[in-house]
Amino acid sequence: GDSVTQMEGPVTLSEEAFLTINCTYTATGYPSLFWYVQYPGEGLQLLLKATKADDKGSNKGFEATYRKETTSFHLEKGSVQVSDSAVYFCALKGDQGFQKLVFGTGTRLLVSP
Amino acid sequence: NAGVTQTPKFQVLKTGQSMTLQCAQDMNHEYMSWYRQDPGMGLRLIHYSVGAGITDQGEVPNGYNVSRSTTEDFPLRLLSAAPSQTSVYFCATSEGGGYTFGSGTRLTVV
């Protein structure tokens, strides 16, 4: 079945450092790919998405490119802030039937001043 | 604009007790689903519904029941709580490819 693998955390960075969180997936067909963010004590919020190969999703300085050839959707940000500290989930939604979201295990990001 | 409302936010149960986690939405979305979040395991689908009167099992349905009598509400019932059901539970709706999550219910079973 469909699955998502993302790097284990925590990822600890200093403010203004470059961020990469790796995400790879296994799926049949042409899934849509997502990054969700969860701030402490809150639910999940959609950060960005891409629905087809070579699409780039972007939001709040974060970017991720849908790479079908490498089945990857890595999350990047050029300069992180303390306020970016959160748990980040990569997810996919298949293109057949009920389109449930399949999540990775999440990566905790800690940004220090 | 409330979106997806989950109640309660926190709950402690004794083993064997039953309870219902409530989920209500005001967006008229057809799809609703329940996930549980456990450390190191991401979110796993418990049950989902594609419309009023229609429900189906997800990845981890055992010990949980759902029903969908209206578009707005999708309650999750724990029939006989077990410590393994200690988790954070999220309700979500979806429409046109976008998902909206509630703020979660943190359940502890002792």
What's the SSE blueprint?
The complex is a heterodimer of chains A (113) and B (110).
Chain A: E1 3-6, E2 11-14, E3 19-21, E4 23-26, E5 32-38, E6 44-50, E7 56-59, E8 62-65, E9 75-77, E10 86-93, E11 101-103, E12 107-112
Parallel strand pairs in A: 2-12
Antiparallel strand pairs in A: 1-4, 3-9, 5-6, 5-10, 7-8, 8-9, 10-11, 10-12
Chain B: E1 4-7, E2 10-13, E3 19-25, E4 31-38, E5 42-51, E6 54-57, E7 64-66, E8 76-78, E9 87-95, E10 98-101, E11 105-109
What is the gist of this entry?
With 113 residues, chain A is mostly beta strands. Chain A has strands at residues 3-6, 11-14, 19-21, 23-26, 32-38, 44-50, 56-59, 62-65, 75-77, 86-93, 101-103, 107-112.
How would you characterize the overall build of this protein?
The complex is a heterodimer of chains A (113) and B (110). Chain A has 113 residues and is mostly beta strands. Chain A contains no helices and twelve strands. In chain A, strands 2, 5, 6, 10, 11 and 12 form a six-stranded mixed sheet that branches. Chain A has a four-stranded antiparallel sheet with strand order 3-9-8-7, with no helix packed on it. Chain A is globular and about 45 Å long. Chain A starts with a strand and ends with a strand. The relative contact order of chain A is 0.34. The mean pLDDT of chain A is 93. Chain B is mainly β and 110 residues long. Chain B is built from no helices and eleven strands. Chain B has strands at residues 4-7, 10-13, 19-25, 31-38, 42-51, 54-57, 64-66, 76-78, 87-95, 98-101, 105-109. In chain B, strands 2, 4, 5, 6, 9, 10 and 11 form a seven-stranded mixed sheet that branches. In chain B, strands 1-3-8-7 form a four-stranded antiparallel sheet, with no helix packed on it. In chain B, a hairpin with a 3-residue loop joins strand 4 (31-38) and strand 5 (42-51). The radius of gyration of chain B is 13 Å and the shape is globular. The model of chain B has no long low-confidence stretch (mean pLDDT 94). Chain A binds chain B through residues 4, 32, 34, 42-46, 49, 51, 89, 93, 98-101, 103-106, and chain B through 31, 33, 35, 40-45, 48, 50, 56, 58, 90, 92, 94, 97-99, 101-104.
